[in-house]
Amino acid sequence: MYVRLSYPLEAYVPAWPGTPQLQLEPLMQLSAGDVANTFLLHLHNHIGTHYDAPNHYVKDGLSISELPLEYFIFTCPLRVELPKGERELITAADLAPHREEIAGCDLLLLDTGFSRSRSEDPNKYVSEGPGLSAEAAAWLVEYAPQLRAVAVDFVSLASYRAQDDGNEAHRTLFRGKNGHFICGIEDVDLNQIRNKCVKRVFAMPLWVRGIDSAPVSLLAEVE
């Protein structure tokens, strides 16, 4: 059985404050007598569920189309529940009790429960959300040698109210250590896998050359 962990893109998507929204421009329309329906999509690459490659924060880091394919296929995913409220940061102390499990995973799904705000209070979701602290990012680089990506159920690895710390968290993950870096997957719907055993996760981004990030279709195989 497969479930989708990506939110659909639509006319309004909760996103980092100031991010341009998706615009759909009809080009050909059956209703107007054209032979087919076609659209022009005006799409910011950090809107909705999206995959951040190292080039997002690291000048010489790999772009989304340069990543090895194994960065999109996860065979040892791990979901960890870490309840967080407004502006709360995930710390190294939060992760430490799960050190043994995290050390063997290739995708870490951080389930804070904050995603409920996405539909209930979108403004709170985008501007008052939690984040991954820089110290937690450094902990992952040190103690998660198999980890290729961190997925979060809030709008960005960085909390809007703690941007300096969040920027450093991004840089720390994307720089990595000894050639091993960790990517980020943001605005993920983890409601679909609670109380389920996740066997594999597939991340399928838009393959656009030269960009730092792309919207991604995230699919989980569950039992």
Describe the structure.
The chain is of the alpha/beta class. The protein has one domain: 3-Layer(bba) Sandwich (Glucose Oxidase, domain 1), CATH 3.50.30.50. Helix content is 19%, strand content 26%. It has six helices and 13 strands. The protein has helices at residues 92-95, 99-103, 116-120, 122-127, 134-143, 163-175, and strands at residues 2-4, 23-28, 38-42, 50-52, 73-74, 77-81, 89-90, 107-111, 131-132, 149-152, 183-186, 198-205, 213-222. Strands 1, 4, 5, 6, 8, 10, 11, 12 and 13 form a nine-stranded mixed β-sheet that branches. The chain has a two-stranded antiparallel ribbon with strand order 2-3. A two-stranded parallel ribbon has the order 7-9.
Provide a compact summary of the structure.
This protein has 223 residues and is α/β, with parallel strands linked by helices. It is built from 6 helices and 13 strands.
SSE order and pairing:
Layout: E1 2-4, E2 23-28, E3 38-42, E4 50-52, E5 73-74, E6 77-81, E7 89-90, H1 92-95, H2 99-103, E8 107-111, H3 116-120, H4 122-127, E9 131-132, H5 134-143, E10 149-152, H6 163-175, E11 183-186, E12 198-205, E13 213-222
Parallel strand pairs: 6-8, 7-9, 8-10, 10-11
Antiparallel strand pairs: 1-13, 2-3, 4-11, 4-13, 5-12, 12-13
InterPro entries: KFase/CYL, KFase_sf
Pfam family, one: Cyclase
Protein name: Cyclase family protein
Which descriptors would you attach to this protein?
223 residues; alpha/beta; Glucose Oxidase, domain 1; nine-stranded mixed beta sheet; two-stranded antiparallel ribbon; 6 helices; 13 strands; 19% helix; 26% strand; Cyclase family protein; KFase_sf; KFase/CYL
